[in-house]
Write a structure and sequence with these properties.
Layout: H1 3-12, H2 27-36, E1 43-47, E2 51-56, H3 61-68
Antiparallel strand pairs: 1-2
Amino acid sequence: MARPAVDGIERDLKDQVPVVRLNVRENVGATLASRLGVRGVPTLIVWQDGERLRLVGRINRSAVVQAATP
């Protein structure tokens, strides 16, 4: 399950970068997922001046934190 990993990422990046969660079953989430080419759930994208990292399925917390911090 991705929720505990994303919770940890959110704690690790607190006050550094925003963490935004979207539900692909809701209109906003589905629209954005379509625009970003999301094909699997969960998908985690680190976006800073363009896409830095995209993970589908298993979330690697340390890779996300490293990609999200300058």
